[in-house]
TrEMBL record:
Organism for this UniProt entry: Elysia chlorotica (Eastern emerald elysia)
Keywords tagged on the record: FAD, Flavoprotein, Oxidoreductase
Cofactor(s) listed in the protein's UniProt record: FAD
Gene Ontology process terms (BP): L-lysine catabolic process to acetyl-CoA via L-pipecolate
GO cellular component term, pick one: peroxisome
Domain named FAD dependent oxidoreductase: residues: 145-339
Name of this chain's protein: FAD dependent oxidoreductase domain-containing protein
Length: 343
């Protein structure tokens, strides 16, 4: 519904963490394929879309979080290094944690340059080479491929109503469109849209294709409990330049450490001399008024965390941006068909 390109969805921004270390083994398995595709996209476009800085899962030694990460890596034969509290302190002297805290280092984790990756995908179309039994990329923008097959791209339009049937009709503030199938990716607007189709998903919104069918509607954001929530994306200045650079610190995740919420971060990469460190939660928002939410409570939690565990960073963020999350109760994505209308 926003003009393309825009920064109101869930795929914008400079960086994302990528990793094989998860608490669910199927994600670790999926990363075998994902990593290969990212590499192929990088090679095909010449874009520097991945920085192999590693990923650090932080937790209590013998605790559930680290043990689940260890299990997922082990059963998938993924390379990792388990760090005892002593090894943890020696390897990352810029961090301050308790004597019972260690880590799991995923050597194949790192940083995806999100904006660059999205641009690279828009420049390349997938082409299945059956003889090689894998996808390769060729420089044919998917938008061009879509329109060459009779598709129409529309942006800057707000969906008003969906009428299901063998032919689906979508009404927007600027017109009506009909097609044999409809794909919805609505993020924080999911339940608002699905209300027309007599469905409501248990979603909680947190503020951080090639087809033979003639119609695709691609609104915004990941389908992932629907009260929107806003995430403050905070960047913290280093007291000593390069002390938290990618050569010194990997991406990291500290599970349920901050008022029952998790912390994640990326070394100083996007903004020189600044570490990206965020709370994996935020205040409830109206999706239409995402920038009016009061995030002072969440920011105070972050400041206390940084003061306690990152003494080499200033205690208040220098840069604050925002994004929106849309989460299911079990945090896994929703990818499904309508129970009545399979198109």
């Amino acid at each position: 519904q926003f003009p393309l390109p825009h920064s109101r969805g869930s795929s914008h921004g400079q960086t994302r963490i990528t990793r094989r270390a998860y608490t669910d083994a199927f994600y670790t398995r999926m990363m075998d394929v994902c990593s290969r595709y990212w590499s192929e996209l990088r090679d095909a476009t010449g874009s520097h879309i991945f920085r192999p800085v590693g990923y650090l899962a932080i937790g209590t030694v013998g605790g559930e979080f680290l043990n689940e990460n260890i299990h997922c890596m082990a059963v998938n034969q993924a390379p990792y290094k388990l760090l005892s509290p002593e090894e943890f302190r020696l390897k990352y002297p810029m961090l301050r944690y308790g004597d019972n805290v260690g880590g799991l280092l995923d050597m194949e984790g790192g940083v995806l340059m999100a904006d660059k990756a999205l641009l690279a995908m828009q420049k390349c179309n997938t082409n299945t080479n059956k003889s090689r039994k894998k996808n390769t990329y060729r420089p044919n923008p998917p938008q061009k491929s879509f329109t060459s097959h009779g598709g129409t791209l529309r942006d800057g339009e707000t969906m008003k109503r969906v009428v299901p049937g063998e032919v689906v009709t979508v009404h927007t503030d600027k017109g009506s469109y009909r097609g044999k199938a409809l794909i919805l990716c609505c993020g924080p607007w999911t339940n608002q849209v699905l209300a027309h189709l007599n469905i409501r998903l248990p979603l909680k919104v947190i503020s951080s294709y090639s087809t033979n069918l003639p119609f695709i509607l691609f609104m915004t954001s990941w389908l992932f409990r629907c009260q929107p929530i806003r995430i403050s994306v905070c960047y913290w200045r280093e007291r000593t330049r390069d002390s938290h650079s990618p050569s010194q610190l990997p991406t990291f995740f500290d599970h349920q450490c901050c008022g029952g919420h998790s912390i994640y971060g990326i070394p100083s990469l996007e903004y020189p001399g600044h570490v990206k460190l965020c709370l994996h939660n935020g205040p409830a928002i109206d999706a239409e008024l995402r920038d009016t939410a009061d995030s002072s409570h969440e920011q105070k939690l972050l400041e206390d965390y940084v003061r306690k565990h990152f003494p080499g960073l200033e205690h208040k963020p220098s840069i604050v941006e925002s994004c929106i999350y849309t989460m299911t109760p079990d945090t896994h994505p929703v990818l499904d068909r309508h129970p009545t209308w399979n198109n």
